[in-house]
Amino acid sequence: MIILKFGGTSVGTTDAIRRVVQIVAAARERSPIVVVSATAGTTDAIIRAARRAEAGDLAGAQSELAEIARRHQNLVADLLGVKGAAVLREIADLTERVEALLSSVAILRELTRRSLDAIASYGERISAPIVAAALDDAGTRAEALSAEGIIVTDERFGEAAPLSTETRERAAKQLTPRLGYGVVPVLTGFIAATREGVTTTLGRGGSDYSASILAAALGAEEVLIYTDVNGIMSADPRSVPGARPLERVSYEEAQELSFFGAKVIHPRTVLPAIEARIPVRILNTFDASFAGTTITSEAEATDGSIVKATTSLGGLGLITVEGAGMSGVPGMAARVFDTVAADGVSVLMISQSSSEHNICFVVGAEHTARIIRDLERAFAAELGRHDVGRVYAEQPVAIVAAVGEGMKGTPGVAARVFSALGRMKINVVAIAQGSSELNISLVVEEAQRDAAVRAIHEEFHGRSARAAAAS
Ligand code: ADP
Ligand code: ASP
Ligand code: MG
User: Fold this and answer.
1) Which of its termini does the chain have fewer beta carbons within 10 Å around, N or C?
2) How many CA atoms lie less than 13 Å away from 124 in the CB half-sphere?
3) What digits encode the pLDDT tens for the residues 67-116?
């Protein structure tokens, strides 16, 4: 049995869905289970609608919702013609339910994470029946199912974590018999439910994670993630035109790459796969001629390269706590990070000067004002005594990361990274290297983000790098 996951662009147009139908039909012998995302742009649009409702603009929220519904109705009409009547009814019912949710948000002027999950789930709820109907219409028996009945999570709305025992039981009960009858289950990605059946989501981009959770629960042979690029590439092809697809990437490399911005897979996707030793492949829905990328164990992913890929993550703020009286005082870092944790904010990168005169860390730019206020409160006494000189933020900044198992034990990688940036006159604001030596990450001003990625990419993957390797 295999899991096939199709992303937003792969289910976003009539043409794309026709390709999906061909791919699934060709995999029939391998007992496929299909996981689908919302169509491209839909989750963003529905979240926008929820925010408008929260601000009291119900009419705006309704028109946003109506636009999404209309787009999907057109898709059904194009794909299925009169045979789409049942799917259209289902879309109308789901739309009515979400409209009611938006109205309550607008009345209360309050959007909790729990309500947001209920609303954000709309995109996958309407894409799954469309894909299932298209498969059925082309002669592949299929049934759309909400993953709410299958993937069980904790109650961390917006970023829920799966409960593996419950999920395993439900997946076996719901999916195995259907496969036995020759039916292809088409599941909603991204969404799940608590033990009590309350809708949760797995975080933005979480349909990839849904696929690997199901694969581990059912002991699948493989997870195939179909997207709109030729696999994981040496950089985001949207910002680096010379980016090349990678044949093999280790689980750890994939995790680091996606954590630092390679949106091509959700950062948690590899976790269930590692435990169950299930290979994950990234393939292009629109170009079957590419073998894509296989994510596998470190031993199988070694290819002699030093840096496999360069990624970046923008919209961040770098907060610095500095002061001459900080050095040699135990517990300073703990107090800083306790304060950040109490704000419920996750830290993406940490760096401390060896003199211990300052600690700096990176968080989402939207959190910096609150964190600075809370740090100033927590260190009021030290600030009064001038042991801590100041707490300040630099933003917007971006993290740029060079990732590769080949960096371990290879001397001079950092020097090459910094000379490449220096040649392009890119100022590095802060640096960190994971103790795993799998990545070097650095902070640059947001405006220099793309130039920094291109400079590092050129150093390790560009024409000059290839010429140096050949000589
Ligand atoms: P899907 O909807 O199929 O899940 P996403 O938009 O979430 O697709 O992810 C695919 C996109 O990820 C690509 O279109 C590409 O622009 C972006 N991306 C960023 N970094 C990388 C990378 N290193 N390799 C491949 N794609 C990347
Ligand atoms: N539709 C969800 C999102 O846009 C999940 C996904 O696409 O994987 O975040
Ligand atoms: Mg995605």
Assistant:
1) C
2) 33
3) 999 999 999 999 999 999 999 999 999 999 999 999 999 999 999 999 99
